[in-house]
Amino acid sequence: MRDELLEEHQKLAELARREEIRPPQSSKAVLPWMKANLFSTWYNSLLTLVALGFLLLVFKGFLTWAFTGAKWSVIPANLQLFAVGSYPREQIWRVWGVVYILSVLLGLSAGMWGGLVLRFALVLGGVWFIGVLLPFEFSTRGGFLGAVVAIAAALFLGRGRTSFRPWILGGWLLSFPLIIVVLRGFGENGVLTSNWGGLLLTLILAIVGIVASFPLGVFLALCRQSSLPAIRWVSTAYIETVRGVPLITILFMGNVLIPIFMPDVDINQVLRMMLGITLFSAAYMAENVRGGLQGILRGQQEAAQAVGLNYVQTMLFIVLPQALRAVIPAIVGQFIALFKDTSLVSIIGLIDLLGVAKSVIANPDWLGLQAEVYLFAAVIYFIFSYSMSYVSQKIETALGVGNT
Amino acid sequence: MENNSPLNALSGKIPFWRDIRVLRILFQVAFLLGVILLLVILYTNMLKGLRGLGLTLNLNFLQNEAGFNLSEGISYEPSDTYLKAFWVGIVNTLKVGIIGIICATLLGIFFGIARLSSNWLIRTIATAYVECFRNIPLLLQILFWYTAVVGQLPKVKESFSLFGGVFINNRGIYLPSPEPTSGMKIWIGFLGVGLLLAVILYVVRWRKLQQLDRPGFRAKWALPAFLIVALCGWFLTPMFTTIENSGKHWPLTLDLPILQGFNFQGGMRFSPEFSALLIALSVYTSAFIAEVVRSGIQAVVKGQREAARAIGLNEAQTLRLIVLPQAVPIIVPPLTSQYLNLAKNSSLAVAIGFPDLFGVGNTIMAQTGQSIPVFAMIMVSYLVMSLTTSAAMNWYNRWINRIGR
Fold it and tell me: How confident is the model at residue B2 (pLDDT cuts 50, 70, 90)?
């Protein structure tokens, strides 16, 4: 019996080697594909036809408008406004400084890590290159060309030098305060935060919010899981209160109440908004992290204590790495939500990307162009949000989340 | 050695500043004191700040005359109090929240299922819809719908009309509204009888299914019975009303909007602000709900579906008896948080001037300068809404889990 089976198996293996019983190759031909994916049954055929009709109607209307009705000239005319708002023209070199710092750092990292970082650097290089092609002033296009060259040069410089990785990580950490300082400058000679605007302000608010709310959220989550009731209660009360109210109330409160509660401290509006966004997002972040913490088996913590790690070491080296890995999708989802939520500062009166869009529409030179301007802003927001979710999916696959 | 018990020896040796039990309590007391100290500092600062502004902290101002007009909502006059104005705002928030939740759920289920379609085109359209609307800020979408779509609608004289009863123009969307007539009472009687019959049939069928020990649709008899009675009642009602009054009356008539002078009269009106807010909130939230529905259905292991088909259940039975009971408990918790998000996001109405809870609160604050009490009222209102919804959903979740397991 066993011999028979073995023989049978060998026969099958032989057949497989001769490619006679390989699984059928999925057909790449157009007609079979359409049959399988569009017209498999009568109701699928009907659905396909209805959907095609709908698409035709929508696209015809949209394309007719986009190519004949729409006045896209409003976009190139205000491109600098969209990018940096009312940032003073004679100080624009500060923004270029930031562009170059980031380009060089990203190029070096891409060279050393490769993979996803490399792809990211190539995309950024592509974006700068589009800047070269667009009808900007000559100096602006030169700046973009320089940035492309900077990325490429840094990429070649960093290629294979894996021993420098810790330095680059340190550089990224340092770049954050450095960028703020470069953008702000010092005292009267610098650029007041009230002059920050456009996409620049949106990105600053989002990055500060993400960088600040993540550790705060982790801290709040740990507090909520604490064995000390007083800390647990205070943390829970904070998280639930913040999650129960809309962000806009918190931003308004920051705007109206901080001057009342702290009359002696002068906090400018951009900082107040950063504070509001961070405190709001931290509560959501805490709930996401808590979800991950609850998934970690109790034994992990006990084992860590048994080998002599203290609380901080246990959390830092044993619990958090596992907990955070499990909730990467939720955390990135929260980052995307935060990025989109920065648009709310335009209600308070800051001129972020959406604020610029609103002010361009209100400009008498460009009356009645709401659709064009808002669509342009929407595309920019979409590109950033979508690439964040794309990166998160790639990280998930790289770390094998969901496969364990 | 007087003390030979090891426990006594230990407890005698540990000084209280190294006893973990004492330390825990001390640490918590210190922490609470710190929190209280912070609150006290903020409170004194607040009193100082308020004195600087010449305000006192009480709620008496709520009884004063509001004096401002609200563009829509339940009946309200500028001579009413601030409290009444705030109440109008709460009702407006609830209105947009509840209608929005219904629309978002329907759209979300539709697109969530469409994303799992075997039809490539349908699947792709649904994916494009979801990715598009959830990656663009809601505020931008609200402004887009308000200024670029609803704001560009034709004037009253040139309104779009659908089926002769629906009119769409830049003053809003006008719909026919059902109005009860004198026949309504009789029809309600019919509905009552139908409901009674339906309950009886439901219980009878339930018992029968239990006896047979077979799966089946419990409302299979009750539902048609109720519909038949309701329909018969609808057509019989005019006969009864002719005896009482002059003329025949259906239980409900449609109050059609009619162009009179410069505007439409009668029917139901959705203002441009309300329409834009409702569309934006529904579409935005539906993209998230679609993802929730899709992942919930996908979370049911494929083998379950195949096994159900293998033991001879048909497609509909598989969905009802195998897939949905397992998918719904997965879907409900994230669905709840989407509903809460929608309710909270409705506060963005302030950007287009819809008088919701936050918008009215904002106006009151601007008029009276009483920012702290008004903020407290706004926050308490939202918290009550959030906590009630999540309590209701938790209860539902427990109920569904009890049935599912």
Answer: very low
Residue among A231, A244, A249 whose CB faces B28 most closely: A231
Q: Does B138 touch chain A (CB under 8 A)?
A: yes
Lowest mean pLDDT among A227-236, B82-91, B151-160, B311-320: B151-160
| Cα dihedral sign, A108-A109-A113-A119 | negative
- What does each C-alpha distance from B175 to B19, B162, B170, B269, B273 come to in angstroms? 73, 10, 14, 6, 16
Q: Which two tokens stand for residue B339?
A: 């509903």
Tokens of B58: 């009480």
AA identity, residue B307: A
Contact of B300 with B323, CB cutoff 8 Å: yes
Express each pLDDT in A125-176 by its tens digit. Answer: 888 888 888 777 778 888 888 888 988 898 888 887 778 888 888 888 888 8
* Spatial distance between the Cα atoms of A19 and B394, rounded to a whole number of angstroms: 56
A51 in any annotated domain: no
pLDDT digits (tens, 9 = 90+) for A226-239: 888 899 999 999 99
Q: Are B235 and B183 in contact (CB under 8 A)?
A: no
Q: Which among B125, B143, B350 has the least Cβ separation from residue A374?
A: B143
What is the three-class DSSP state of B60? helix
CB contact under 8 A, B46 and A261: yes
ipTM attached to this prediction = 0.85
Cα separation of B289 and B292, whole Å? 5
Within 8 A of B351 by CB-CB distance, chain A residues are: 347
Count of residues making up chain B = 405
Determine, yes or no, domain membership for A321: yes
A343 chain-B contacts, CB cut-off 8 A: 137, 139-140
Highest mean pLDDT among A115-129, A339-353, B249-263 belongs to A339-353
Q: Could you tell me whether strands B258-260 and B263-265 are parallel, antiparallel, or unpaired per DSSP bridges?
A: antiparallel
What residues in B contact A37, CB-CB < 8 Å?
A: 118-120
Question: Does A364 reach chain B within 8 Å, measured CB to CB?
Answer: no
Structural element, H or E, at residue B203: helix B184-212
Q: Which residues of B touch A344 (CB under 8 A)?
A: 139, 348
Query: For residue B372, is pLDDT > 60?
Result: yes
pLDDT for residue B219: 77
Contact by Cβ (8 Å): A317, A309:
yes
Task: Assess B382–A contact: CB distance below 8 Å, yes or no.
Answer: yes
Looking at chain B, the whole-number percentage of residues with pLDDT higher than 70 is 92
- Residue A248, domain CATH: 1.10.3720.10
Q: Which residues contact A273 (CB under 8 A, 6 or more apart)?
A: A205, A251, A254, A255, A345, A348, A350
Give the total number of structural domains in chain A: 1
User: If one looks up domain B82-176+256-404 in CATH, what number appears?
Assistant: 1.10.3720.10
Instruction: Check B125 against A55: CB less than 8 A apart.
Output: yes
Query: Model pTM?
Result: 0.84
CB contact under 8 Å between A340 and B125, yes or no, is: no
Residue A262 lies in a domain: yes
- Are B383 and A340 an interchain contact pair (Cβ–Cβ within 8 Å)? no
The tokens of A269 are what?
A: 């509006």
Which residues, numbered 7 to 36 in chain B, qualify as contacts with chain A under a Cβ-Cβ cut-off of 8 Å?
24, 27-29, 31-32, 35
* Amino acid, res. B333: P
Contact status of A386 with chain B (Cβ, < 8 Å): yes
C-alpha separations of B296 from A188, B343, B389, B393 in Å: 56, 23, 21, 17
SS3 B369: coil
Residues 328-347 of B with CB under 8 A from A: 344-345, 347
User: What residues make up the domain containing A252?
Assistant: 197-362
